[in-house]
Amino acid sequence: MSKLETTKRYILIIKKLRKSKGATFAEISDYLQRESEFQGLNFTVSLRTFQRDLAEIGSIYGIYIKYDFSEKYYFIEDEFELDFSDRMYEAFDVYHALNVREQQSQYIHFEKRRSQGTEHFYGILHAIRNRLLITFSYQKYYKDHPENRIVEPLMLKEFKYRWYLVARDTYDDRIKFYALDRLTNLEEQTKHYEENADFDINEHLKYCFGIIIPDDETPYEIVLSFEPFQGKYIKSLPLHSSQKILIDNEKELRISLLLYLTHDFFMEVLSMGDTVKVIKPQKLVDELKKIYKRALKNY
Fold it and tell me: Which CATH architecture has domain 220-296?
């Protein structure tokens, strides 16, 4: 059996148990047989091989499948955080859809975009776990040539379909964001950096929207009012983890956020056009008025 068939079988087992919330070995075997016929591959396995599959799935993906001896079925033991598991399963769903058959490609349309730099994931994560310095070349959009950086890697962060390295630059001891797609010549160093027990990167980014961390600023309570239709999108995809619903009726959705007022957040509010009204703070209202007035001068 090929590695491709084995990998796909792992994905199918996970998919089956997610959908049914539990299944017997016979039910899983029937499902694998149907998928074998549909995909023109061989996913059928013995109980012994299936047991090895479960161990491999746990080792590779961190998804642990257990057996309920009283009910006599297998189930996924949900031990990791909900948000993380949702993203992981989302990746599995996409992988499965893209690999069912090559003929499916005519039904899937991808956005044309450059690489996100995800090839750096493993090296960066290894350096973060082991607190190792890394070096790389970084190309800023407003510079003609890349610059060399030596940093203490702290976290990987996703924003607007891009991935960023959050790191402490050894040059000026500041926390900065580096887009992975503009990062080259990544090398892990043998030198360790000291972990600051009093510094919590998650707390540091708690009130950030996007990739800008303002200097010496406190977060603002932001209140936004949306038309009911736009409000459905805001409820299904919250703007920030601090989002709270204040009013939700047939006239409006009103929410509160606790954030720094940064350029990234200004751009997010502006992108919603006339479907949103800023209730407070006044500082945000005044800044948006200035931006709208400047924009009108272009027409």
Answer: 2-Layer Sandwich (3.30)
The model's pTM: 0.70
Amino acid at 131: R
CA distance 87 to 67: 25
- Tell me the CATH number of domain 3-107, given options 1.10.357, 1.10.10, 3.30.60, 3.30.230: 1.10.10
Q: Is 83 exposed, middle or buried (0-12, 13-18, 19+ CB in 10 A)?
A: exposed
pLDDT (tens digit, 0 to 9) for every residue of the chain, 299 residues total?
A: 577 788 889 888 988 888 887 899 999 999 999 988 888 888 999 999 999 999 998 888 778 899 999 989 999 886 554 555 566 667 666 666 666 555 566 677 767 766 678 888 888 989 998 999 999 999 988 888 999 999 999 999 888 878 999 999 999 999 999 999 999 999 999 999 988 888 888 888 899 998 888 876 789 999 999 999 999 999 998 999 999 999 999 999 999 999 999 999 999 999 999 999 999 999 999 999 999 999 999 99
Locate all alpha helices (DSSP H) within 40-163, ordered by sequence.
Answer: 47-61, 82-99, 121-130
Instruction: Give, in words, the CATH class of 118-201.
Output: mainly beta
Cα 101 to chain centroid, rounded = 27
Least Cα distance to 218 among 168, 261, 177 occurs for 261
Is 61 in contact with 11 (CB distance < 8 Å)?
no
- Classify burial at 258, counting beta carbons within 10 Å of its beta carbon; exposed 0-12, middle 13-18, buried 19 or more: middle
Count how many Cα atoms sit within 13 Å of the Cα of residue 97 in the half-sphere of its side chain: 11
Whether the upstream peptide bond of residue 238 has omega within 30° of 0, thus cis, is no
- Cβ atoms of residues 207 and 219 within 8 Å: yes
Look at the alpha carbons of 276, 281, 284, 286 in this order and tell me if their dihedral is positive or negative. Answer: positive
